[in-house]
Design brief:
- The chain is an all-alpha fold.
- It has helices at residues 17-25, 28-41, 46-58, 64-71, 76-97, 103-119, 123-139, 143-159, 166-203, 209-222, 233-249, 253-269, 272-276, 278-295, 298-315, 321-341, 349-361, 368-384, 388-399, 408-424, 428-444, 450-462, 467-484, 491-496, 500-507, 512-519.
- The longest helix is centred in the middle third of the chain and has 38 residues, at 166-203.
Length: 520
């Protein structure tokens, strides 16, 4: 069943690892700010956690015993306490540093100040601060914070004589009621989007019409039915995201594109929101590019790619690290898709080297699977250009990546690509070995599309044939593949590995580069 739930197990992590990851993420400015912060607080025991910070900054791989000796600590509990204090104080210094750069922090700070004033019985002054915080929350569509502030205002109005008018009280209660509805809808829609994403991660795309019908029933059962006549900004964003993921799971790329465009257009209609939630806007552009690539829509891809680049050029000064990382990944992915979608585009080895350098720069912050996807695209660029040895190197890097389990679809198409590359290099022994291991891998997969099955069967046959008979077998396979290409449930397979140009290059005895140029 498509909606069958899968068991997930969390991997335990070392207690030191979060601290090390936090230190590795710090910029030079943030490290300098932290040291200034420690000097200002002059807290008892500050020297120890600052010493620990200095030691880890110089040697992030230092062992626990080494650190204990250099810090002159007698017990591991003292060491644990130093780590905990260091972690907390780094976060506090960052909070102070980014106070004016994050609306969420700024709004919460005003609310915290209002709490302090209220506890000192200065409730009228607290109401003034809450009003400032509420205006910020309303303008930036921070609905949860907005409701929290309104509830605080109601608390003050109900417990103290503030001389508020009847109209003011009614406005407060109406405001609380409307925010409650909005938050309920936003929560339901974000839950729906998250469940759809998890379904895709666990099960991939739908494979037949019954899967589609089951998915639509699931979607409708979770879709909020009480959306307001004029939904708020994030209600509309999450609604479009939910429909995007529904149609993406069903491989309906045309409708996907429509909803991704609506999602991005919401931000373009309110430009201030681009700065206030840049991550969601960038992700919308990214999905528009991904879908344009899947549809082979060159014109849309070029236009959206230009939007992505312009966004990077105009807004990059105050980016957070997560936004910076996102943009770097999205741009590299878009550049590689650009080269694959428009093969006449000129690029150099230095362009690829720069991408790899950027990936290395962000490797601590990036999920390895995303890096491996980019390696796969780079491998296919090399393969298209006749640089089969380089393609093999990148494909081997994917399969031999240490410590991380690959998604089945990536491993599946990497294995098939590697067999094809070794076949072209006449590495018969290696290709035959890979064929056997790939057959065993196929047997472990519970569900497979027809396209990879056909590719594997073809490779198994042509390994045993002379070139002339191999070309005849390829011609037969090409006809079957062309039929499969018309099947809507096979679309994803052709995005990962469209074997048709390779088959034609062998059948017509032409370079793969020439065949691809003719196709585009």
């Amino acid at each position: 069943m498509y909606l069958k739930t899968l068991s997930c197990f969390a991997m335990p992590i070392s207690k030191t690892e979060p601290l090390i990851r936090l230190i590795l993420s710090l910029t030079k400015a943030e490290k300098r700010n932290f040291k200034l912060y420690v000097r200002k607080i002059q807290q008892e025991g500050a020297l120890k956690f600052l010493q620990l910070f200095d030691l880890l900054e110089k040697n992030i791989q230092a062992t626990e015993n080494t650190l204990l000796q250099k810090l002159e600590l007698e017990t591991k509990s003292q060491f644990s306490s130093s780590k905990r204090h260091l972690y907390q104080h780094i976060l506090t210094s960052l909070r102070l540093l980014y106070n004016n750069k994050s609306l969420d922090i700024r709004i919460r700070e005003l609310t915290d100040f209002a709490t302090i004033l209220y506890r000192k019985n200065l409730y009228l002054e607290a109401l003034q601060l809450l009003n400032k915080a509420k205006q910020l929350a309303r303008k930036s569509h921070k609905d949860h914070l907005h409701l929290e502030i309104v509830e605080f205002e109601k608390k003050i109005e109900s417990r103290h004589i503030t001389r508020a008018s009847t109209e003011r009280i009614y406005d407060l209660t109406d405001e609380a009621k409307s925010r409650k509805k909005v938050i309920s809808n936003v929560t339901d829609l974000s839950n729906l989007k998250l469940r759809l994403q998890r379904l895709f991660i666990n099960k991939g795309h739908t494979r037949e019409e019954s899967d589609n019908q089951q998915l639509i029933l699931f979607f409708n059962s979770l879709l909020p039915t009480n959306l307001l006549d004029e939904p708020t900004f994030f209600e509309r964003v999450y609604l479009n995201q939910s429909y995007f993921w529904l149609h993406y799971c069903m491989l309906d790329f045309d409708t996907c594109s429509d909803y991704a465009k609506k999602w991005v257009d919401l931000f373009k209609a309110e430009p201030d929101m681009i700065n206030k939630d840049l991550e969601i806007y960038l992700r919308g552009l990214h999905y528009l590019l991904v879908i344009a690539f899947c549809r082979k829509d060159q014109n849309t891809f070029i236009r959206i790619f230009k939007d992505l680049e312009e966004c990077g050029q105009s807004l990059q000064t105050d980016w957070t690290q997560i936004t910076e990382t996102q943009y770097a990944l999205f741009k590299i992915n878009a550049q590689l898709n650009y080269y694959l979608l428009l093969p006449s585009t000129n690029y150099t080895a230095s362009d690829i080297s720069q991408m790899l350098k950027t990936l290395d720069q962000f490797h601590v912050r990036v999920d390895p699977h995303k890096t491996m996807i980019l390696y796969y695209k780079i491998a296919h660029l090399h393969f298209r250009n006749g640089q089969t040895d380089k393609a093999i190197d990148f494909l081997n890097n994917i399969l031999n990546h240490p410590g991380k389990q690959l998604r089945d679809d990536l491993e599946l198409y990497t294995r098939l690509s590697l067999i094809i590359a070794h076949y072209d290099q006449d590495n018969d022994i290696v290709a035959d070995y890979l064929l056997n291991t790939t057959q065993r891998f196929f047997q472990k997969l519970p569900e497979l599309n027809q396209t990879p099955k056909h590719i594997l069967q073809l490779l198994k046959k042509i390994m045993q044939l002379d070139p002339r008979r191999a070309r005849e077998e390829m011609q037969n396979c090409l006809m079957d593949i062309e039929v499969l290409a018309q099947n809507p449930y096979e679309k994803r397979a052709f995005v990962f590995l469209d074997i048709r140009p390779w088959l034609k290059s062998h059948i017509q005895q032409k370079d793969l580069t020439e065949i691809i140029a003719e196709a585009y």
